[in-house]
Design brief:
Immunoglobulin-like, about 45% helix, rod-shaped, alpha+beta, five-stranded mixed sheet, two-stranded antiparallel ribbon, 4 helices, about 250 residues, 11 strands
């Protein structure tokens, strides 16, 4: 059954991933990039002696290049080698070419990403389906946990008549949910760092992932030791009940 919560989760996942499918110029971080600028007048390419200048702004709107001259070989695509490609994000570029006292202006955007590629719509579907599957696992596991006994069976006097070992499975499944949550945060952080124009979201989720990871390293072994201890205690309790002992259960 599809619940409002599950629909909300699906909507959030799609809202994060669908903006990645926009088509634009993509370059790899820290790579040498020759940025080409289309130049034509009245349907013909610019001449080799057509002067062109360009101004480029970093993603934070600070100035990267200020009216720098483009190299023009007459192929209609004057270019400039970017001085810095270390910053991930969307860059704004404004170019001006002048031919026969006529100026032509153009503006465009390009992006620097960690991998230097864009995300196609098919990739978005893969990411979305993967994340939705993991979220569905969480909801499914939570549903199973809800159906498992949380305490031992007792009679009308409150004495334990049967020790339920299945209640320990609840604790194991909670660890399983934690592991899936860790995987979801890791995937979102990597998507944010590799593809989003603003990597702040990716950095935030990666910090959350690191905190969760170290909590897992420390807490999960201790948690499993506690589960094993409780399991051994229940086996002793089970043996005592078989010998006829009357043991008060948890109300």
């Amino acid at each position: 059954m599809i619940t409002q919560k599950s629909l909300l989760v699906v909507g959030v996942i799609l809202a994060i991933l669908l903006p990645l499918a926009t088509a634009q110029l993509i370059f790899k971080q820290d790579a040498t990039v020759d940025l080409k600028v289309p130049c034509s007048f009245n349907g013909t390419f610019c001449d080799a002696d057509t002067p062109c200048e360009i101004t480029i702004y970093y993603p934070n709107t600070s100035l990267m290049v200020d009216n720098a001259s483009l190299t023009n070989t007459g192929n209609g695509m004057p270019n400039i080698t970017l001085p810095d490609t270390s910053v991930i994000g969307n860059y704004q570029a404004f170019a001006t070419c002048t031919q026969n006292s006529v100026s032509g202006e153009s503006s465009f955007e390009f992006r620097i990403t960690a991998l230097g590629d864009t995300t196609e719509l098919e990739d978005i579907y893969v990411y979305a389906i993967g994340l939705i599957f993991l979220v569905a696992l969480i909801f499914g596991t939570a549903f199973i946990i809800r159906g498992l006994p949380s305490k031992d069976a007792v009679d009308e006097r409150g004495a334990i008549v049967q020790v339920s070992m299945l209640k320990h499975l609840r604790n194991v499944l909670w660890v399983f949910i934690w592991g899936i949550s860790l995987a979801i945060v890791f995937i979102i952080s990597n998507i944010g760092l590799m593809y989003l124009p603003n990597i702040m979201l990716g950095k935030l989720f990666f910090v959350i992932y690191q905190i969760m990871f170290w909590m897992t390293i420390v807490a999960v072994p201790i948690y499993f030791i506690w589960i094993f201890y409780k399991l051994m205690k229940d086996k002793e309790l089970q043996n005592m009940i078989k010998r006829g002992a009357q043991i008060k259960g948890t109300p």
